[in-house]
Specification:
The protein contains no helices and 11 strands. By secondary structure, the chain is mostly beta strands. Strand 4 and strand 5 form a beta hairpin.
Length: about 120
C-alpha cells in the first residue's frame, strides 16, 4: 500500500483546510485509516482514525472541529479541518493498517504504511 497525502497549506486562524490521502491497492476498504501530526520539536501524535465503516475517533483537542471520512470507491481518506488554531500547525501524516483493534488506534507503531506528510501552517 502506498499513501499520498495532499491538501496542506497556510491558513489564518479560524480558517479551514481539507487534507486528502490517496491509497494504492485493491483492499483499501479493509484498512483502518488514520491521521497523525507532528509539530516542530514535538513527538508525532494521533489526530483521527476511521475503521472500515465505523464511527470515527478523534483526539480531544480536535473534536468538534475536525472530521475524518473515507471514500472507499476512490481509495481516499479525508480530514476536514475547521476553526483551525495556531496550535494545529504541524506536518500531517496519513497511516494505514489492516487491523481494526480499537485499543491500538492511537499507537503509532501499530501502523504498517505511512504517507509522506503534508505541512499545515495556521497563522494567528
Amino acid at each position: 500500500v502506498q499513501l499520498q497525502a495532499s491538501g496542506g497549506g497556510l491558513v489564518q486562524a479560524g480558517g479551514s483546510l481539507r487534507l486528502s490521502c490517496a491509497a494504492s491497492g485493491r483492499t483499501f476498504a479493509r484498512y483502518t485509516m488514520t491521521w497523525f501530526r507532528q509539530a516542530p520539536g514535538e513527538e508525532r501524535e494521533f489526530v483521527a482514525a476511521i475503521r472500515r465503516s465505523d464511527v470515527p475517533y478523534y483526539t480531544d483537542s480536535v473534536k468538534g472541529r475536525f472530521t475524518i471520512s473515507r471514500d472507499d470507491a476512490k481509495n481516499t481518506v479525508y480530514l476536514q479541518m475547521n476553526s483551525l488554531k495556531p496550535e494545529d500547525t504541524a506536518v500531517y501524516y496519513c497511516a494505514a493498517r489492516p487491523r481494526s483493534v480499537v485499543n491500538t488506534l492511537r499507537l503509532e507503531s501499530s501502523y504498517d504504511y505511512w504517507g509522506q506528510g503534508t505541512q499545515v501552517t495556521v497563522s494567528s
